[in-house]
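Justification of computing resources. Each target in the renewal requires a structure prediction run like the one illustrated here; the chain below, 307 residues long, is used simply to show the kind of job we budget for.
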Amino acid sequence: MAIAKKWDVLALGVTSVDDLLYVAEFPAANAKTRVLSSDRQCGGLSATALVAASRLGACCAFAGALGENALSQFVESTLVLEGIDTNFVTRRDDASPVHATIVVDTSTGTRNIFAEHKGFTGADAFQPDDSIICATRVLFVDHHGIEGTIRAAKIARENCIPVVADFERLSAPRFSELMDLVDHLILSSDFACHLTGQETPERAARSLWTDRRAVVVITCGESGCWVLSSEMSQPQHFPAFAVEIVDTTGCGDVFHGAYAGTLAQGMDLENRIRVASAAAALKATQPGGQKGIPLHEELEEFLSTQT
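Resulting structure tokens:
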């Protein structure tokens, strides 16, 4: 008997607490610089993806590991305020979000991230229950807590639930096993080229394609993205939307979340890419990893002005 779908997107991966510092320009070694402003926001691959999907109208849940510490409480309260279900969070004494200090160069909109891993983060190896995973339309995974992520991805694949992934680094000996379980693989150009040894995102997309994939997307920031699907004979380039960039923190995570949410809602590939690209572009116009993520109405208004 099929399990009724409770959520559009379920994520189990990394969360973070981001302390953002805005400077006129990133300092040279042994130099001092004045902080123009500061802010604290929730971040992390999975948390930001869920916020993006939720703001665009998807029903979302987080069931990764959190502790009882102040950082965990900050993350959970933020997710709840965004309408994300946290009832199935795995509680672990050794768990804690990543704590990141992010220095944003306001002259370029670029950032440097200094991340501190104080405890376990990501998917627990044994939780949540299989029924929780089966109750989502799309499973979103990253490379944190790889044992639990592989378990969840296997359950999803066995139940015909698409797996959307955001990976940033080769994280464990079983990474290749996890890669094989992903239907919708979305990687940054830098990591994709590093992973495949290819020099261009187009070639990287070809190298990452397997018969098990539904879609491969290689994101290239302001240069757009390259997309390869089972319906394409070769990678296709999609341009980015031109905006005035303030802060690129979280843009890739927002792209992933918007893609996952629209996939769950049945949108076709071309429009999934268009929505994800627009959401990432709008995020770049605002400071922080989550503050600038658009609501559905804001995104629709933006798209109505684009040709």
